[in-house]
Amino acid sequence: MTSPPYTVIGTPFSTFTRSITLALHYKGLAFNQVRVVPHSDTAYEHHPFGFLPTLVIHEIDGKPVDLKLRESQAIARYIDRVAPEPSLCISDGDAPIPERMWEFVSFVAGYGFPAVEKGVVKPRVAATDEGKLTDTEIRQNIVAGVEQLRKFLINTENAMSPDGYVFGEKLSWADFFLYPLLADLRAITEGELLSDRLRQRMSEMDKLDAVKATSAGTLSVGARPPERL
Would you tell me how many other CB atoms lie within 10 Å of the CB of residue 208? Predict the structure, then answer.
């Protein structure tokens, strides 16, 4: 039996890893997944700074290789090049210029991840699992994070199409980068901050086979942060 041409290094709990596995499933590209956390020995073996994900490419032009491609946006561009259909890019009709999609992705990666995960989700989950603080005390501890989260959610919604996916009827990389963050947020108390528009958009995403295929091992279905491997 032929081995899949790709290996994803990264735990399903990682939102950036999930962005990539969402696309691989959506485009029908077979892959193995090595489920490790950031800054583990295996993560450092594949990424000089120990971050996730890394895509290991096992074959190029029919020749065996083990090329490591790091950073989710670089991996996304590679996936689009080798598997252009079904497309996850937008056209001029979906936005004033197609580069708006990568602008949105950059916003999510640069500002959304700190606002959602570092400022709110991770401290909420850690405090809840530790079980020493009341909900009121946890809320007090993440007040500053929640304020940044509110700003991110407002700006995100303002940048989105009023209906459908981020850019209307066209599913794109913008959706696959945003969804994992909002799915984590929806799973905790602070998910109450999600607007009706964002919830509606997430409901549409929930129907995708790729979303269903990548839900196991994520906070969105009750998984907990994995131990370092």
Answer: 17
Distance CA 229, CA 149 (A): 30
Q: Looking at the DSSP assignment, which residues form a beta bridge with residue 207?
A: none
Alpha helices for the chain (secondary structure H): 15-26, 41-46, 72-82, 100-107, 113, 122-130, 135-141, 143-159, 173-186, 196-206, 209-213
3 state SS of 31: strand
Q: Give the torsion sign (CA, 126, 129, 132, 138).
A: positive
- pTM listed for this prediction: 0.95
Helix axes 173-186, 100-107, angle to 10 degrees: 30
For 80, the token pair is: 């689009």
Single out the residue of 53, 175, 178 nearest to residue 116, CA to CA: 178
pLDDT tens sequence across 114-124: 999 999 999 99
Cα(115)–Cα(131) distance, integer angstroms: 23
What is the C-alpha separation between 155 and 8, in angstroms, rounded?
A: 31
* Residue count of the chain: 229
Question: Residue written as tokens 């700003």?
Answer: 151
> Would the pLDDT of 2 be above 80?
no
Mean pLDDT over residues 46-66, rounded?
Answer: 96
